[in-house]
Known about the structure:
The structure holds 3 protein chains of 3 kinds. By secondary structure, chain A is mostly helical. Helices cover about 60% and strands about 0% of the residues of chain A.
Amino acid sequence: xxASDSPSAALRRRDLCSRGIRLAGKMRSDVVDLLxxxxxxxxxxxxxxxxxxxxxxxxxxxxxxxxxxxxxxxxNLAAYRAFRALLAQMLEEQRExxxxxxxxxxxxxxxxxxxxxxxxxxxxxxxxxxxxxxxxEEGASPPPxxxxxLFEKKLRGLGVLRELAQWAVRSARDLRQIxxxxxxxxxxxxxxxxx
Amino acid sequence: DSHIQYERVGADVTMKCGSxxxxxxxxxxxxxxxxxxxxxxxxxxxxxxxxxxxSGQYSCYEGSSWHLKYQTYLRVGTPxxxxxxxxxxxxxxxxxxxxxxxxxxxxxxxSFNISVIHGTREMVCEKDAFPKNxxxxxxxxxxxxxxxxVTLTVTNALGKNSTTLTFDEVAIVKPDPxxxxxxxxxxxxxxxxxxxxxxxxxxxxxxxxxxxFFLRYRPLILDQWQHVELSDGxxxxxxxxxAGKEYIIQVAAKDNDIGTWSDWSVAVHATPWTEEPKHLxxxxxxxxxxxxxxxxxxxxxxxxxxxxxxxVGS
Amino acid sequence: QNxxxxxxxxxxxxxxxxxxxxGRHGQTDFCYTTNDLPPPVCFKTKEKRVEILVPESSTxxxxxxxxxxxxxxxxxxxEIHKKDVSFVPLTPRIxxxxxxxxTSTLNLKWSDNGSVFPYGLDAIWQIQILRKEAMEKVTxxxxxxxxxxxxxxxxxxxxxxxxxxxxxxxxxxxxYINVTQFAGPKDWSDxxxxxxxxxxxxxPNGSGVFPQDTVVAxxxxxxxxxxHEEGQQIQRMTYGPEIYPMIHLSRRSSAIRxxxxxxxxxxxxxxxxxLSEDEMEGTVLFVGxxxxxxxxxxxxxxxxxxxxxxxxxxxxxxxxxxxxxxxxLFERVSGKNVSxxxxxxxxxxxxxxxxxxxxxxxxxxxxxxxxxxxxxxxxLVDLIERVRPKTPEKVTVLGNSSTSVRLHWFINGSFAxxxxxxxxxxxxxxxxxxxxNVSVPGGKxxxxxxxxxxxxxxxxxxxxxxxxxxDHFWKWSGWSRIEEHTTLEA
Lengths: 195, 314, 490
């Protein structure tokens, strides 16, 4: 399943990875800022712990260092597609609940949504370097939450942003792993085998 | 019968002479020394408002036969106060360690029990041989938003206390300071100093988990530090040094994405390169100038780190 | 012994008596005579009670107790006077008890059993509301009604100071009928059986914080409760940033009382119930103001197609999104209603209402409402007195001589029903500006024209124009763009 590892493909992958790492870093700092704004604007307690929220991809992973490059990209892409839908949902709820009242929070949400979409596209680009490319989008969007109260929606939003912040860190780490030149080989490890 | 008896500082202690009656004639000794009759109530030994110095071995002998009827080892101490607990990951993403101490001594043996809960899962905290009050936990999961809850319980014969820490995985990531910090003048550049260092050896995978660094430097004659943050690489050239002034330089490290800054590295000193004086008269002068400008030689490790001219910190 | 007679309906009475232990198991011969019924009426009964007519004045009763074998054990005679008979209304029967959780209101319906009594009796109904596991009395209210010889279903509402979900509410009532012409003692009926509205704390998985996502007025006192599972313990309850003392309601429910609630942020104020470190429930309270009466309501038309009304909203309600204050424009003459698109953040609000054929006068009512209250403002407008044309466009200047020009301009709108007064400002170089007024018949999306004479030859002029209604001046339109023109040489 490994990509044809021509030097140009390896160079293209490394370029995509390093740009992806920078995008992930920027996204993370924006998400962390958004989290602070969100917590403050929604009157939440920053230390509140939120139980795992249905439909929100958890960044937590076991034996992370044993994942192949393809696994990393596929898991990342699935997550960011889900976050794209979740953030769009949050934006819609924000408009419904607050109208124009909190335009700043709305803009910050929209900006992060844009970055998440860009990052998802970036991952698709990386997967295109592989033979079978990115999976199709059907059925990717998370199930609409059963009726949630407003407070539950607020907590859900907090859960979404926290997971997204962790995913941004994980993505940077994943891309660094993928970008690592494998030991002794001239070209970078094909995605399937990277450690 | 002989055993250990624990009592709080300030307590009043009454010791019976084993099975001897109250009115039996007995003799009490403390660490082998007879105890004055004033401390006796019949055959009972009464110790009021005991203090630490009264810890020791207390024995009771039957008056006539001098048979040992009762012996105890009195340990005077205090119940434990709330312990101070700290958890930190200096080898992320391998794991983290927790260490603890008591704010005040109890003077009697204490036992520590630590529990680490992550979500619904209890994790093993493997005790380190040294230092004793420390154990380490291996991360089973990375990038988790679920908080870790560490509870340390300290128990001794006089009481029990505990403390709990709740933290996020990312919050406790704090690398050790950078190592092997070296600062060298740059020949023919009176305002430059070249500083280099290494990732802390405890940091397991700098490639996947790159560190960024914070350099601070100042001439000894000034108190105000200058700072520069470096997002990659382990060297930096200071280009605005005051000519001829000795500098003190330190470096700190932080994971590129998460956690907090390490402590500052050991300080190193260096003085920028200076022009050779034109009128050379005596050889001494030359030697003296040379040693002043090229203090980048490696001092023997036993040299006290902050000695003038010592440039390598490890 | 102790023969007592009670009537529930002033017509028949129920007499009861005690019997010595010997006669407890045997039958009783019960005979009674009233002064208007000489021969005694007798019957046997095993019960210790009989129902007989209420005497006009008095009745003599003979009670003979027999043993199980039927032999008479004891006989006693009683004289019962009408004034000895107690009147106790029948125990009322609750017809229905319906909760409205949205408004925390209980609606009680019961039958007044009026058919039993003659007309016009005054009845007092004592209604008790009880709450919590211990069924503590919350309130007791007297409700007055008049019996009308028919069974009427009476209805009464009560709004609880806490959400009905918080804990079970119970209602019971009793009745007292003031029969002035009844000589005997009168007493309250027995209490009706208790009717319960179970709270969420008696539902298996009814946990939650209540009221859920509600809107209250600034200054209200609000009770917020936390219903949790059996065995769980509430660590603390917070409202906004503050921890509040808890009021125990039941094993599974506790509440806090927020007094004089202050206005909340746009996202509402969170009320959180912390059950353990990582388990919490919550609700969001939106505390705002009822809508203010709109100020400076003003309506005008710029094109005889749309009437544009503007107003100042007054004090912001503090409610946003779907809870925001909404406006609608109702026109009384046509009966037409238009809801207004508005943005709660803008200082001035605007709403458009279609100009209706053949309608000159518009009787507007601007309706304003939000979840806390509603109000309105009204304005009667004669449309032709409220014309402010759109800014003239496509101004062109045609010069056909050295001292005169012809100005053309277009106005978007339909002014066929009125005359327009247009003002042309003429300025050139350093000379003083002149205004030239011209009255033109209004047209439908027309271009208008005016001739300007007595100009100086070979001179550069700037022209701009504005218009208004000629007959009933209301406001000038905006000035058009400036159009430059140099007159021909002489």
